[in-house]
Amino acid sequence: MSPPIIDRAAASTPPALARHIRGLSDRAIAWLFIAPTIVLLLAINIFPLIWTIRLSFTNFRANRTNAPVRDVGIDNYVSILTDPEVWQPMQATAHFVIWTILIQTVLGFSLAWAIDRKFRGHGFWTTVILVPMMLSPAVVGNFWRFLFQPQIGLFNYGISAVTGVPPSSFEMLGTVALAPWAIVIVDTWMWTPYVILICLAGLRSIPDYIYEAAEVDRASPWRQFWTITLPMALPFIMLAVLFRGIENFKMFDMVNLLTSGGPGSTTEVASITLKREAFEKWRTGYSSAFAIILFVTVFGLANIYVKALNRVKSR
Amino acid sequence: MSTSAHSVVEPSGRTKAIAGSLVIAYALITMLPLVWIFLTALKTPPDSISYPPKIVFTPSLEGFCNLFTTRSRQTEDYIKSLPPASGTCEEIARARNMVIAGPSNYVPRFWNSVVIAFGSTFFAVALGTMAAYGFSRFRVPLADDLLFFILSTRMMPPIAVAIPIYLMYRELGLSDTKFGMILLYTAVNVSLAVWLLKGFIDEIPREYEEAAMIDGYTRLQAFRKVVLPQAATGIAATAIFCMIFAWNEYAFAVLLTSGEAQTAPPFIPIIIGEGGQDWPAVAAGTAIFLVPIVVFTVLLRKHLLRGITFGAVRK
Question: Which residue of A42, A141, A147, A275 shows the fewest CB atoms closer than 10 Å?
Fold first, then answer.
């Protein structure tokens, strides 16, 4: 924007306002517009994060504010990283993230591919499919708890109707072997639509002329899929995996409602452990260190992944 | 979904039929749990836990009555001594040897959800629009870093920042207040709002404002009278996304509120009837809570992809 235009604009505004506004250069407006957001994020995100870091080096307990707070150095970090029991939630989280991503990507991409065939009514059915991901994970977790009830649940009834296994013989949420899969099932139900949507955008971003050229070259449909469809949709698929990965790493709502980490600690993902340490045992310092370790892990993994994603994109 | 003029080399009729039946089958399986919740809301508690699950049943309002009231058990003689019941819910309660003791907490909790969702959406969208305009139209130093910082605030597990926010809110007297929750959700949503709105505003040609400024508008007037109306659709879509997030949020709500400011998601799962969870009441509460989201999903379907990927993918 060249200065003369601004001057002319200011000159023709009503005098009172102009006197007020003329002082506001574009630079001032930019800062005035951006600053409130930055200030809010500093207050509600960065300040708490710094506080968490500070607390992570202490033995502070939030339920005993009068007890003397002692600096414990890196003790919290050491005890977390050397505690074999901490690997349980980490493993549970990894198991959960890997399986949900694997299943949802295959299922989501296949369905996106099917939707992209443009059969009659595909718009309506796609909208129907997208509903679950817009719901509250807590509410979803709660009503799936109902569907998983061993004696009365619709899920058990359906499975036993198909397989003939008596419905009372498997308790999805109460059995060590089944509970993690119960959570994978619910997460898949809720979030496959998300993957479908992103994959669909990927499929639709592929220009038609590439297929037309392949057709001229008499490439088989199978070959077209492997050499055109999949590679060109790959950056989108990877983006879906990134977003789902970050979200599922943080997963709390659904697990808390479905199993609260049980039975035993089979479904105790990292967020559940964190909640227990911080808000039930009130080991504030210890749980702050745990939170920082988690944050660094997500942030680190996400960054490495984004680098890989950019490489694929630029190919 | 999008009906853009994209045509792959037209798929054969048989491919379409297979694709269509795959998608429709998945959609029906997806809908089943939701339909089941809506059906359960209309059952009596015994019907809701009968086995095999009842598909044909006499609809009852008991779930809704139990959702909105609290009841107390009385002796049969006492109930016979009462004057005739005044209203359906009273009748249903008396048939189970109970009288209505008072309203339940559902309405206040639902109302909290409404106030917090609207309040935080308003602030997030207002701040987000301003910041997005700032980033879109002016050369801001370190703009990329600031934008990445804004995005990265979403990577933190809510439980990780919940500890210091809990402490901070306790100091400031914001614990368990609607204002505190509005502030928190505004901070969480503003990152999404900035990213989404920046995409929308980037698409509005700068020439419009420049023309308006040549006609004598100041920068701020041009923003208000030219940019805002042009961005209206984007602002509306962003607002609905923010609203849905605040409406669905559970982790912060369950950790930071206990009564006064509690929203519906932590409340619905704890509705307990005689002898355990009152599933029809829970289902009724869930159904009422889900309706706005289902409507929003249909309204949003064009923007869905942008909203869930922070505008990283556009259609």
Answer: A42
Rounded to the nearest angstrom, the gap between the alpha carbon of residue A279 and the centroid of all alpha carbons in its chain is 23
Report which of A178, A32, A14, A102 is spatially closest to residue B138, judged by C-alpha positions: A32
**B90 interfacial to chain A (CB closer than 8 Å):** no
Rounded to two decimals, the ipTM of the complex is: 0.89
Nearest CA in chain A to B190: A37
* A110–B220 CB contact, under 8 Å: no
- Beta bridge partners, B276, equal B273
Contact criterion met (CB < 8 Å) for B155 and A274: no
Q: CA-nearest residue of chain B to A166?
A: B52
Task: Mark yes or no for CB contact B163/A52 under 8 Å.
Answer: yes
> CB–CB of B309 and A243 under 8 A?
yes
Are B20 and A114 within 8 A, CB to CB? yes
A-chain CB neighbours of B242 within 8 Å are none
Do B253 and B265 contact (CB within 8 A), yes or no? yes
pLDDT tens-digit readout, A260-301: 988 988 899 999 999 999 999 999 999 999 999 998 998 899
Q: Is B135 exposed, middle or buried (0-12, 13-18, 19+ CB in 10 A)?
A: buried
Contact between chains at A119 and B33 (C-beta distance less than 8 A): no
Would the pLDDT of B210 be above 60?
yes
Inter-residue long-range contacts of A76-82, CB under 8 Å, 24+ positions, other chains counted: A76/A285, A76/A286, A76/A288, A76/A289, A76/A290, A77/A289, A77/A293, A79/A286, A80/A286, A80/A289, A80/A290, A80/A293, A81/A293
Shortest Cα distance, chain A CAs vs residue B259, angstroms: 17
- Helix/strand/coil (H, E, C) string of chain A? CCHHHHHHHHHCCCHHHHHHHHCCCHHHHHHHHHHHHHHHHHHHHHHHHHHHHHHCCECCCCCCCCCCCCECCCHHHHHHHHCHHHHHHHHHHHHHHHHHHHHHHHHHHHHHHHHCCCCCCHHHHHHHHHHHHHCCHHHHHHHHHHHCCCCCCHHHHHHHHHHCCCHHHCCCCCCCCCHHHHHHHHHHHHHHHHHHHHHHHHHHCCCHHHHHHHHHCCCCHHHHHHHHHHHHHHHHHHHHHHHHHHHHHHCCHHHHHHCCCCCCCCCCCHHHHHHHHHHCCCCHHHHHHHHHHHHHHHHHHHHHHHHHHHHHHHC
Please indicate whether, in this complex, the C-beta atoms of A43 and B187 are within 8 angstroms of each other. yes
For the entire predicted model, the pTM comes to 0.89
Q: A110, A119, A160: best mutation site toward chain B, by most B Cβ within 10 Å?
A: A119
φ, ψ at A266 (rounded to 5°):
-65, -35
pLDDT digits (tens, 9 = 90+) for A55-104: 999 999 988 877 788 888 899 999 999 988 888 899 999 999 999 999 99
